[in-house]
Design a protein that fits this description.
There is one protein chain. The protein is of the alpha+beta class. The protein has four domains: 28-41 and 342-411, conserved putative lor/sdh protein from methanococcus maripaludis s2 fold (Beta Barrel); 44-54 and 252-339, Beta Barrel (Elongation Factor Tu (Ef-tu), domain 3); 59-88 and 218-247, RNA polymerase II/Efflux pump adaptor protein, barrel-sandwich hybrid domain (OB fold (Dihydrolipoamide Acetyltransferase, E2P)); 92-213. The chain has helices spanning 2-27, 90-114, 119-152, 157-186, 190-216, 261-264, and strands at residues 29-31, 33-35, 37-53, 57-60, 65-70, 77-78, 83-87, 218-220, 225-230, 237-238, 243-248, 253-260, 272-277, 282-300, 306-316, 330-347, 352-354, 357-364, 367-379, 382-387, 394-396, 409-411. Strands 3-12-15-14-13-16 form a six-stranded antiparallel beta barrel. The protein has a four-stranded antiparallel β-sheet with strand order 4-11-9-6, with no helix packed on it. The protein is elongated and about 145 Å long.
């Protein structure tokens, strides 16, 4: 009887033990873990880039006017010097004809002035001087007589003033006649010769300027390439300085990107770049940073925040040129700033802040153990572990407030 009771007690204790173990196991906190791994990590900066053309040329209007004819369309291949468009030249042609006629008249006057005077002309000029002298003397006597009579009160002031005006007029006529006679007798003076020549030279300068303007009414390609953009149509009125065409080589491309000034210090010329675009189906196109601009600029972000950025240029492999990428296409870029070939790493979401340090929870035989660590570089969602963990150890991912030091844990799906 006693032996039966003993076996019954042992059976009950066994059932209680099994139940306690099962209950304890069910009370363990279920967590997701990840083993510390070793491999290559790359630190990088991700940005958006714009595809640009090398030596893209914008052609601007030198003169204003109405577009008379357009000889090319977007996509046409052109050579240096090819005519792209013509402006109306009717007004300039009329101005040119007028200046040419003016020049011919000035040259005829100059040639006439250079001719030696004959005796008949000289005698005629001498007679004119004598006639002018007589008229002057008569006007002088009349003015003197009028002054005397005015002082005596015999004539009005208006009569006296009229006599004086006539005197001045006859005096000027006499001087002009003497000057004409002197010119005829001596021929054209050096000063007069310079005046004629200066006038003719001035007219020629105006003619040359109009010819240059007329040439500017013909819009030509400055270099070989493809017409990438056209901003005018026939009949359009344009102003000097207006952009008319863009010419470039669509197969000679590079990528331009703007990097935040806080990140540009990590970027160096020659740094490798990975280029991709989900929209275009481009993956892992290789490139290299070829230029970092020396000056920063301000740019407003999509959120309306002013940012300081620095422009860079990226050259990319020939496989991407002449393929899917075209000017002004937008692509994603990843600039590799640091590469570590063999380092320990864990997912970023396993790391948290603890007492001013970085820390993780390690799964140590079903118990959560707090472990302080030292981080290295970050690569996307991966973090380098410099100190505090060993390869193969398991860390708890995304630890929440329920996980404490020493708590019992159970890996998911176990």
């Amino acid at each position: 009887m006693k032996r039966k009771k003993l076996w019954l007690v042992l059976a009950i204790l066994g059932v209680i033990g099994i139940a306690y173990f099962a209950i304890g196991r069910n009370q363990r906190l279920e967590v997701e873990t990840f083993p510390v791994e070793k491999g290559k990590l790359e630190k990088y900066i991700e940005e958006v880039g714009i595809v640009k053309m090398e030596q893209q040329t914008t052609i601007y209007a030198s003169e204003g006017g109405k577009v008379a004819e357009i000889l090319v369309q977007v996509g046409d291949q052109v050579k240096a010097g090819d005519i792209l468009a013509k402006l109306n030249e009717k007004e300039l042609s009329i101005q040119l004809e007028g200046l040419k006629a003016e020049k011919e008249a000035a040259m005829a006057q100059y040639q006439e002035a250079l001719k030696p005077s004959d005796g008949q002309v000289v005698r005629k000029m001498q007679a004119a001087v004598k006639s002018a002298t007589v008229s002057y003397e008569e006007a002088k006597r009349a003015a003197d007589n009028s002054r005397r009579l005015y002082e005596e009160g015999a004539v009005s002031y208006e009569t006296y003033r009229s006599a004086l005006a006539n005197l001045h007029l006859q005096e000027a006529a006499l001087e002009s006649a003497k000057s004409d006679l002197e010119m005829v007798e001596k021929g054209i003076s050096t000063q007069q010769r310079k005046q004629y020549e200066a006038r003719i030279s001035q007219i020629q300068s105006q003619i040359d300027l109009l010819y240059q303007k007329k040439e500017n009414l013909i819009i030509r390609a400055p270099r070989e390439g493809m017409v990438m953009a056209k901003a005018i149509e026939t009949g359009t009125y344009i102003q000097p300085g207006m952009a008319l065409f863009e010419i470039g080589n669509r197969d000679d491309l590079y990528i331009e990107s703007d990097i935040l000034i806080r990140e540009i210090g990590e970027v160096t010329e020659g740094a490798p770049v990975v280029i991709w675009s989900d929209d275009l189906g481009i993956k892992d196109l290789k490139g290299v940073v070829r230029k970092i601009y020396p000056k920063a600029f301000s740019k407003i972000s999509d959120l309306g925040i002013e940012q300081k950025r620095v422009k860079i240029e990226i050259d990319f492999s020939e496989a991407g040129k002449g393929g899917k990428l075209k000017p002004d296409y937008e692509v994603d870029i990843r600039i590799i700033t640091q590469i570590k070939p063999e380092v320990l790493w864990i997912p970023e979401n396993a790391v948290f802040e603890y007492e001013g340090n970085h820390a993780v929870f390690v799964n140590q035989k079903g118990t959560a153990v707090l472990r302080k660590i030292e981080k290295g570089i970050e690569s996307g969602e991966r973090v380098e572990i410099v100190k505090g963990l060993q390869q193969g150890e398991e860390v708890i991912l995304s630890p929440n407030e329920k996980i404490k030091q020493g708590i019992q844990i159970q890996k998911k799906n176990e």
